[in-house]
Amino acid sequence: MLNFCDVTENASGTTTVTFTAYLTSATGTDTVIDWAVQAPDATFLGTSALGTPLPSGFVTVPAGQTTANFTVTLPQGVLGATPSSNLLVKIGSTNGD
Which among 7, 25, 3, 28 is positioned nearest to 16, based on CA atoms? Predict the structure, then answer.
């Protein structure tokens, strides 16, 4: 599960958007979660705004914890050019599953 947020674009340089990934319960080992930005339709920020490939990565929730933060970096001007667009981050597998 991820949080939802509003973002204000930086006046210069890139803008980072911080997300918090949540587990429903803590585990005894680190949990690695894959994530990827997706653009299912024209209302979402896609490759024309963010470049190719769309950002992706992973976040590690440490053993005994239920949350971890990760960031997506947006190019300068992307939010001002498309202020009503959405940023979709989809959670994939955990620990390579």
Answer: 7
Q: pLDDT by residue (tens digit) across 19-67?
A: 989 899 999 999 999 999 999 888 888 898 888 899 999 999 999 999 9
Model confidence, pTM = 0.81
Are residues 7 and 78 in contact, defined by beta-carbon separation less than 8 angstroms? no
> Phi-psi bin for 83: left (phi > 0), alpha (psi -120 to 50), beta?
alpha
CB atoms within 10 A of CB 8: 7
Span between the terminal Cα atoms of the chain, in Å:
16
- CA distance linking residue 86 with residue 97, whole number of Å: 28
